[in-house]
Amino acid sequence: MFSPPLHRQRHQFVIDFVKRNKPKKVVDLGCSECSLLQKLKFHREVELLVGVDINGTTVKKKMHRLVPISTDYLQPSYDQLRIELYQGSVTQKDARLRGFDLVTSIELIEHLTLADVKSFSEVVFGYMTPVAVIVSTPNSEFNPLLPGLVGFRHSDHKFEWTRAEFRSWYSMVCLEFGYEVEFTGVGQAPSGQQEGVGFCSQIGVFRRRGVRDGCNMVLGDDAEDVFSYTLLYSINFPSLRDNNTLRKVLVSEVLYWAEKLKSGWMEERTGEWSGAYSLCQTAAGGEGCVSEQKMRSLVVQCGRSVCVSVPLDVLWSCCPKISALTGSVCNLRHLLLDEPEVKLSQDGAAVLVNYQEQDLEEEEDHNDLEDSGYAEARQDSHTAEQEENWEANV
């Protein structure tokens, strides 16, 4: 009946709220198959994303949806994200869930007995004290419009409230725990019937009174530290704020660009076009080609091998990502000092990239052949061979 499907509309309602309000700590109560959490993990304004469900088996079957994808490792950002999944009842307290910015309860409370709804209210609004709470539940007034429905929408539902019953509950919550609420919903009725029956899923958006600029000071600090939930899964996503991740990304970029610049300079030496060096010229202000004298100064002896010395200031100027990661040449040098994969010069001012004697000999042989007229003779031979082939095919 609905397009998009009703469950997607409920999830999109939460996503739109997250985009507008940018909560850093979010917990989804009754997370079940983790489908809402899977969508929220891509909104990196969230730094801590938690799911709670009483059915640990269901959570375990679907928690693979929340693992970092390859892009998270290959292109980490400065955003931080930690995901935690717990098995536990929403009627029980757990100190790890106090002081969140947003709590979501999507189509959950109708699965509780009325006695448990009272406990749910005390735990969520009185103990957890989040900045905001989103609660959705079926609107029983809409049920006559659902084809073939007899009784409740799900066999496990303990009740389904009318709009008036829902208002009665959230008005009591606001009065007792210091919240204000906005009443809305998703799943509109057919034209002309919206006012009479309301939304298919009714939603209350609660905001705690007295909270400024999204700053959540946990109320009742003398409350007991209870840990009644069982941790099923936790993971920290790769972030450039983590020093180990930052170093791995930086080393990869340095090695790539050092090799690229070395190849570009070698091509300059043989008179070939260098895309890498042209890019570096642009980044460094276009100072012109590398002179033969300069080129010789870049080739240094490294024990038994020959290396090309790539100055750190050139790397920093040529690669925007390296400059963004480090902020200065001094920081770049400091971060590379203890990296075994990167070979630095004795003064720490340049990266040394292996350049084998064999490569030098091949270049010299190539230049000798060019000077001897070999290339011109080879071209004449190739042209004659082509003519013979064309004649044979006519």
UniProtKB/TrEMBL annotation:
Source domain of life: Eukaryota
GO molecular function: metal ion binding; RNA binding; small RNA 2'-O-methyltransferase activity
Class of this enzyme: transferase
SUPFAM superfamilies assigned to the protein according to its UniProt record, in alphabetical order: S-adenosyl-L-methionine-dependent methyltransferases
A single cellular component GO annotation: nucleus
Swiss-Prot/TrEMBL cofactor(s): Mg(2+)
GO BP, one annotated term: primary piRNA processing
Reactions catalysed, as given in the entry: small RNA 3'-end nucleotide + S-adenosyl-L-methionine = small RNA 3'-end 2'-O-methylnucleotide + S-adenosyl-L-homocysteine + H(+)
Keyword annotations: Magnesium, Metal-binding, Methyltransferase, RNA-binding, RNA-mediated gene silencing, S-adenosyl-L-methionine, Transferase
Protein EC: 2.1.1.386
Stretches for region Disordered: 359-394
Acidic residues compositional bias, start-end: 359-373
Family of this protein: Belongs to the methyltransferase superfamily. HEN1 family.
UniProt name for this protein: Small RNA 2'-O-methyltransferase
Organism expressing this protein natively: Seriola lalandi dorsalis
